[in-house]
């Protein structure tokens, strides 16, 4: 990007005058419209204002002072999933995420520049519980008891769940059938066989509370591939929950906590099995520079970010040891947005799955279109999230697959919930690493699902 002052730049605007939005990035868009058919919200509404091109136009017009930031304009911008499918489709390399993210942060600030005051849901649930695996675990104890006694089904059947606030009703519907938690991961697990690498495992918050078994399978698969696995206890949430809702300071605190928790000088990679967390961790350097104004290149956070690898990416680079035990199953693969669009990881999970004897991987139509999960989007934008969830599950069912595979906890929650609502809970929702682990261990689906 040019350092020369651009004469077309507008006067500073309250929405964009600080906080990392670079006006030049608007100018990369040539309004060709090639992104529109890749945009989930445009596919659903057919409204140009709900397309990437339309949103870029709106953001630039507000920045230029040509239009007001009315509620109607904000609505079109809030409806964006930040899935970044438009970035994949754009031939001009428009970095849409670098526009919408800082713009939305500023859009929701108070007039004095302070972050918007969180409502009860954000204060108590999103910031008070979600970023802490321990707190989620305790919160889930009543849910586990209710599931064990089938009281959740009774509440649903008698309509009692409708007495809950709408967001809690949706959370209740998103809750998967919780597996027995199993033991805590130790701080160290040694490589099996010849040692090939030393890694550290990022365990996450929501993912560790609800999909603790996937962290165990990831650790086992890494061991199986000759990796010493460290699991630092002082690690925390990646910070995405705060960052994506405009709470920059706590996001930075979590980023710094993680940078200190992982001793990156002594490891080859920080391994992540959740696309959303991986994308956030890989972006630490940029986010720090956006929020603090410091140069990105040499910060500790940007060095940390270079070590972050999705587990499928890492195993492909390392050369995964071929699994031996067959899994006779027809499966399909859903591309999580934060894996395919944000991290450009598409072939690696498929390569790993294709190594499993007996596993038939059938293509999924619109595989790269968002399922409507998008972080907390399925709680804050329920109508569009439902439409996209239905669209995704119809495509999954059309394949006739017995299971759908994906590498992101948000997608797993969303898709299993829609499958359950359609009485198709028989279609299993799995992480690629779970299948790889089953094939290494010789255990079947029945024991794992
Ligand atoms: S974002 Fe890219 S694809 Fe979309 S209109 Fe602009 S230049 Fe074209
Ligand atoms: S990020 Fe996703 S929802 Fe938002 S404009 Fe781009 S394609 Fe559409």
Radius of gyration: 22 Å
Query: Residue ranges: pLDDT <50 for 5 or more in a row?
Result: 1-18
Helix content: 40-55%
Instruction: Tally the beta strands.
Output: 9
> At the third CATH level, what is the topology name of the largest domain?
Rossmann fold
> What sort of overall outline do the alpha carbons produce when their principal axes are compared?
globular
Query: How is the biggest beta sheet arranged?
Result: 5 strands, mixed
Strand order of the largest sheet: 1-3-2-4-5
Write out the distinct hetero groups bound to the structure: iron/sulfur cluster
CATH class of the largest domain: Alpha Beta
Description:
With 449 residues, the chain is α/β, with parallel strands linked by helices. The chain folds into four domains: 24-107, Orthogonal Bundle (Fumarate Reductase Iron-sulfur Protein, Chain B, domain 2); 120-174, no CATH class; 188-317, Rossmann fold; 324-448, Rossmann fold (3-Layer(aba) Sandwich). 48% of the residues lie in helices and 7% in strands. The protein has 25 helices and nine strands. The strands form two sheets. The chain has a five-stranded mixed beta sheet. The protein has a four-stranded parallel beta sheet with strand order 7-6-8-9, with helices on both faces. The chain is globular, with a radius of gyration of 22 Å. It starts with 23 loop residues before the first helix and ends with a helix. Residues 1-18 have low confidence and may be disordered. Residues 29-35, 52-53, 56, 86, 89-90, 92, 94 line the site of one iron/sulfur cluster.
